[in-house]
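From the methods appendix. Each design record in this collection lists the discretized structure first, followed by the designed amino acid sequence. Records were kept in a plain field format so they could be parsed without special tools. The example shown here is representative of the layout used throughout.

RECORD:
C-ALPHA CELLS (282 positions):
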C-alpha cells in the first residue's frame, strides 16, 4: 500500500508563533522538528502496513524538511514551482493521504495557531461550491478526485475540531492546545510524536474502511482576498469574475482543474500585493 503525506509547519510539535518560523536561528530548530514529526508519521504508517510513502513539503518555500534526516524509506517532493501546490506528486495510485503539521483556516477559530488559508498575505476566505474551506478540506477534495481517501491529521486542537466538522472519521493527533493565534500550550515534541506515530499507524491499518470524499460536477471557487488590488489582477485570467471589490469567482469542470486555477489566482494575488512588477528583476 502506498500513502501520501502532505506536510505543513504551523501544526508541528513545539510551534506556537509565526516568529519561530521566520527568525533564521529559530527556523532551523523548527525544520528539525517538522522533519521529526513527519518521520513519526512515516514510522507509524509503515508499522500500519504501508510499503511506499511520498512526502510533499508544503510550507512557505516548500523546502523545509531536512532530506538527510528524513526516514530513508520515504521520498520527498521539495521546492516551490509546483502546478499542484501542496499536492504535487499525488495521483490515483495512492491508498490514502495524511496531513502532518497542518493548521486552521483564516477566520475559522479565534485561537487556532497561525491560522490562515494557503497565503496569509492575500486570502481572507475561500469557498468551494458555497462551503468555506481550509487547506485540509480543499486538499481532501482534490485527493478525492484521484480516488484517495483522507486518513489522518495532526495539529492543534482547534484545527482538529474544525476539520472534523467536515471529516469526522479521520484519525487525529493533537500536538498542542491552541491558546491564541500566536500562542499554544505545548507538550514535549517526543510526546507529540509518540501520538502521531500511534494515530498514523491505526489510520493506515484502517485505510480500506475510509471513504473517498469527492465533489462531483462543476466546481465553483469564490475567493475573498485581503486587498482589492489582489482581486483585480486575477481578472487577467478570462474565466475569473469580480463579484465584489475584493472577491472573485470562477467555475471549472472538475476539482483538479479548479485547484490549479485557484493556485494560479493566489500566485497572481500574492504577486499583486505591492504591484506585480515591483519585485521582478528581469
Ligand atoms: Zn504553512
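DESIGN:
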Amino acid at each position: 500500500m502506498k500513502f501520501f503525506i502532505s506536510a505543513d509547519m504551523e501544526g508541528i510539535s513545539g510551534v506556537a508563533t509565526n516568529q519561530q518560523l521566520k527568525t533564521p536561528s529559530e527556523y532551523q530548530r523548527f525544520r528539525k522538528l517538522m522533519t521529526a514529526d513527519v518521520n513519526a508519521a512515516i514510522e507509524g504508517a509503515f508499522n500500519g502496513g504501508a510499503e511506499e510513502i511520498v512526502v510533499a513539503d508544503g510550507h512557505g518555500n516548500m523546502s523545509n524538511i531536512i532530506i538527510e534526516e528524513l526516514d530513508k524509506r520515504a521520498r520527498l517532493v521539495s521546492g516551490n514551482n509546483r502546478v499542484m501546490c501542496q499536492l504535487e506528486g499525488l495521483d490515483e495510485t495512492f491508498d490514502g493521504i495524511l496531513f502532518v503539521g497542518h493548521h486552521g483556516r483564516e477566520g475559522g477559530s479565534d485561537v487556532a495557531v497561525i491560522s490562515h488559508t494557503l497565503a496569509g498575505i492575500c486570502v481572507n476566505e475561500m469557498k468551494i461550491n458555497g462551503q468555506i474551506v481550509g487547506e485540509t478540506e480543499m486538499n481532501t477534495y482534490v485527493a478525492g478526485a484521484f480516488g484517495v481517501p483522507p486518513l489522518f491529521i495532526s495539529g492543534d486542537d482547534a484545527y482538529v475540531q474544525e476539520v472534523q466538522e467536515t471529516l469526522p472519521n479521520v484519525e487525529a493527533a493533537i500536538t498542542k492546545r491552541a491558546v491564541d493565534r500566536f500562542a499554544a500550550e505545548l507538550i514535549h515534541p517526543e510526546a507529540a510524536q509518540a501520538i502521531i506515530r500511534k494515530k498514523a499507524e491505526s489510520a493506515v491499518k484502517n485505510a480500506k474502511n475510509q471513504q473517498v470524499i469527492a465533489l462531483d460536477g462543476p466546481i465553483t471557487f469564490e475567493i475573498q482576498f485581503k486587498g482589492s488590488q489582489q482581486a483585480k489582477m486575477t481578472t487577467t485570467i478570462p474565466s475569473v469574475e469580480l463579484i465584489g471589490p475584493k472577491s472573485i469567482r470562477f467555475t471549472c469542470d472538475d476539482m483538479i482543474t479548479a485547484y490549479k486555477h485557484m493556485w494560479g489566482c493566489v500566485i497572481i494575488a500574492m504577486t499583486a500585493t505591492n504591484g506585480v512588477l515591483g519585485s521582478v528583476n528581469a
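APPENDIX NOTE: Helices lie at 19-22, 24-47, 135-145, 157-166, 189-205, 228-234, 255-272.
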